[in-house]
Amino acid sequence: MKEIIKKAEILIDALPYIRNFYGKTFVIKYGGAAQTKKELKDSFAKDIVMLNFIGIRTVIVHGGGPKISATMEKMGKKPEFVHGQRVTDQETMDIVEMVLGGLVNKEIVSLITSHGGKAVGLSGKDGGMIKAKKKIIKKTTPETGVDEIIDLGLVGEVTSINPNIIDSLEKEGFIPVISPIGEGPNRETLNINADYVAAAVSSALKAEKLILLTDVPGLLDKKGNIISTLKKNQINKLIKNGTIKGGMLPKVQACLNALSDGVSKTHIVDGRIPHCLLLEIFTKEGIGTEILN
Questions:
Q1: What backbone phi and psi angles, to 5 degrees, belong to 239?
Q2: Which of 36, 93, 181, 203 has the fewest Cβ atoms surrounding its Cβ within 10 A?
Q3: Which of 18-27, 146-155, 266-275 shows the lowest mean pLDDT across its residues?
Q4: What is the pLDDT of residues 123-165, one digit of tens each?
């Protein structure tokens, strides 16, 4: 009987959060280990379905870098990266679009559907949803001190989001699952960082939360402890002293972009923990790092 009562208490503890978030939109960037391990895939899908059944609208933006690289190698093409960005010629772009828009996207849709949700897969090109431009990266040459422009090929950054197709699907109770592919000014297909796409989508939807699933516990301080809560104005100091660095920089920048455009809260959460979304959203302690205005 004690165990049964404990389960009831857990549900009651979640009630204030359910009440506060009912009818709100959460944008979730799905990637890393949560996207590759079977038990974590099922855990993620169940969390998404539950959120929708209790009235929280969810929009998923997914990555798929390891799967793209593996497919390229099978096809005899070696992946190439500069500053963590995939160099994307036309042949690579064709593989990216095939893997993200086809294989990965439809697997996520099928997974959510198998657990009772109604998911629909989208590319950023569908309905003119994601407009983009080529991303320019500059690197200072040590010998001359002059900035050199690096051409990454068909790599883009978001210029605008048209949320109409997402709004239409949400009103009908569907869960949009978006691959981070956009259309350039000359109708060329561009490969875009999924964190930045998720931030741009959350801004366009005026979402309550942007949640980025990662393969780390959250933002860590110099002693390796999780920083549970951060305010936007503390970020620059942590970047300057090296606390925030490497692969965490684009994630933090994505959070800052979303906060600047009206998103209420952003979260960096460990996707390696089963039911990480429910633990972060419906408990006072949370399990990752929240960044807020």
A1: -70, -45
A2: 36
A3: 146-155
A4: 999 999 999 999 988 776 666 667 778 888 999 999 999 999 9
Cα 189 from Cα 197, distance rounded (Å): 14
Share of the chain above pLDDT 70, in %: 98
Cα separation of the two ends of the chain: 44
How far apart CA 24 and CA 26 sit, in angstroms, is: 7
Burial zone of 250 (CB within 10 Å; 0-12 exposed, 13-18 middle, 19+ buried): middle
Handedness of CA 187, 176, 41, 212 (dihedral sign): positive
DSSP 260-278: HTT-SEEEEEETTSTTHHH
Contact 26, 209 (CB under 8 A): yes
Domain residues of the chain, as ranges? Answer: 24-286
To which CATH superfamily is domain 24-286 assigned?
Answer: Acetylglutamate kinase-like (3.40.1160.10)
The one-letter code for the residue type at 12 is: I
Please list, in sequence order, all residues whose beta carbon lies within 8 angstroms of the beta carbon of residue 282, skipping any fewer than 6 positions away: 13, 14, 17, 18
- Does pTM surpass 0.85? yes
Task: Give the number of other CB atoms < 10 A from CB of residue 107.
Answer: 17
DSSP 7-30: HHHHHHHHHHHHHHHTT-EEEEEE
Give per-residue burial for 65-96: e unless 16+ CB within 10 Å, then b.
bebbbebbeeeeeebeeeeebbebeeebbebb
pLDDT reported for residue 109: 96
pLDDT in tens, 193-211: 999 999 999 999 999 999 9
Helix (H, G, I), strand (E, B) or coil at 288: coil
Q: What does the block give as tokens for 194?
A: 């999924």
